[in-house]
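Is this the right way to post structure tokens for a design question? Let me know if I should format differently. Anyway, here goes:
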């Protein structure tokens, strides 16, 4: 059982394959981008490259927001704040890529240029509407 993420929020995060928005910092300003993710045990995995990866390398403090909409009406939201770690191990990257791509219906080995970023959640909040 999670110590940081309430069970209700964990259930929402794992309920269906929704997009998340990852907030990083770029040159002292926020940078927000959509990402696929996998949540388990107070940690989030994403696989990414480019600007998001560069931002995490420069500043590991991140936020992640996931929201379920129905016809433009918010049903619930979960917001996570945490510390990101770039994982350089090829086997871990391949395994995480396969898990996340499978969740979203993509080929397990798609986007091999991506790198694994593991986010240890420090705080979590959620709301249902």
């Amino acid at each position: 059982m999670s110590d940081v993420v309430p069970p209700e929020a964990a259930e929402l995060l794992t309920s269906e394959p929704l997009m998340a928005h990852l907030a990083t910092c770029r040159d002292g300003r926020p940078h927000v981008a959509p990402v696929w993710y996998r949540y388990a045990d107070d940690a989030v995995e994403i696989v990414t490259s480019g600007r998001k990866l560069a931002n995490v390398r420069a500043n590991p403090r991140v936020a992640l927001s996931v929201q379920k909409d129905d016809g433009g009406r918010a049903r619930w939201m979960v917001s996570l704040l945490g510390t990101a770690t770039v994982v350089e191990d090829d086997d871990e990257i391949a395994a995480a890529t396969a898990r996340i791509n499978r969740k979203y219906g993509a080929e397990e080995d798609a986007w091999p240029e991506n790198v694994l970023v593991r986010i240890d959640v420090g705080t979590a909040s959620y709301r249902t509407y």
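Format looks fine. Someone answered above. Worth noting: Residues 78 and 126 are 4 Å apart (CA to CA). The chain has three helices and seven strands.
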